[in-house]
Structures are given as structure tokens and as C-alpha cells.
Design a protein that fits this description.
Elements (H helix, E strand, L loop, with lengths): L22 E6 L4 H4 L7 E5 L8 H10 L5 E7 L4 E7 L13 E4 L27
């Protein structure tokens, strides 16, 4: 590895079994980092950050340990909207409750990302936007 001509590092990660990855938010506690970040119980799944994919709970635990008291941009999938959004959460142990995020989480068979309800449609931009006639 190492930087090449582009000065970039390419990271390969497979999306195989992606529906088995991530951690489901089951409950957020009042005034917790999870609640302040807008996480929605039973609907949100923590997927990762721009640098880390959460394959299992241990990945999240490690991420939180190295990110204490620092804002973390995290990708979150919502089952109701069938979309992923980015939230900023600051793990800390001083919010007045248990845990650094202040939420209950679940993994495994009962907490998988649900199957897509409808196929996503990609709408191409109008031809005029590209300068075509």
C-alpha cells in the first residue's frame, strides 16, 4: 500500500451480505448523545462512518472508544424512509446516563436491515441540463 500517483489510498470493502451488517437502534435515552443526534428507535441502523464500516457490534464499540468526546459523522439507514442519512454524534460518558451513546442496540437475526419495499428509481436529469437539444 501507500499513496500512489493520485495521492490517495483505495480501500476495498464488499457489500456482500450488507443487510446483515450494521447495528439497530432500539431505544434512545433522554438527553443522550443518541437522542441529540436524532436517532430513531426501531427504525435506524448504524452503518458506519466515512472510514469504518460497522460489520458487527465490536466494530461500533471500537469506534466509540477511539472517538470519545469527539464528533463522529455516522451513516444511518432508516427503515421508514428506506434511505441513508449522515448524522453527527459525540460519544461521551458525561451526559447523565449509562453508556457513551445513551441508547440500546441490537444485532443478529431479529435486527437485520429490512428488505427494500420498492425498487429505487433513478430519474435522469433533463437533457437540457446537459446542454443537449
Amino acid at each position: 500500500g501507500g499513496p500512489g500517483l493520485l495521492g490517495a489510498t483505495v480501500r476495498f470493502d464488499t457489500l456482500e451480505d450488507a443487510e446483515l451488517q450494521g447495528v439497530r437502534v432500539l431505544e434512545t435515552f433522554p438527553n443522550s448523545p443518541a437522542q441529540r443526534a436524532g436517532l430513531i428507535p426501531y427504525k435506524d441502523y448504524l452503518l458506519g462512518t466515512p472510514d469504518v464500516i460497522i460489520h458487527e457490534l465490536d466494530d461500533l464499540v471500537e469506534l466509540i472508544q477511539v472517538s470519545m468526546n469527539q464528533p463522529v459523522s455516522m451513516y444511518v439507514f432508516n427503515a421508514d424512509t428506506d434511505a441513508t442519512r449522515e448524522v453527527v454524534i459525540t460519544p461521551n460518558s458525561d451526559w447523565g446516563g449509562e453508556g457513551a451513546l445513551g441508547c440500546d442496540m441490537g444485532t443478529g437475526l431479529l435486527h437485520r436491515i429490512p428488505a427494500q419495499r420498492q425498487p429505487r428509481q433513478v430519474v435522469p436529469p433533463p437533457a437540457a441540463a446537459h446542454g443537449y437539444a
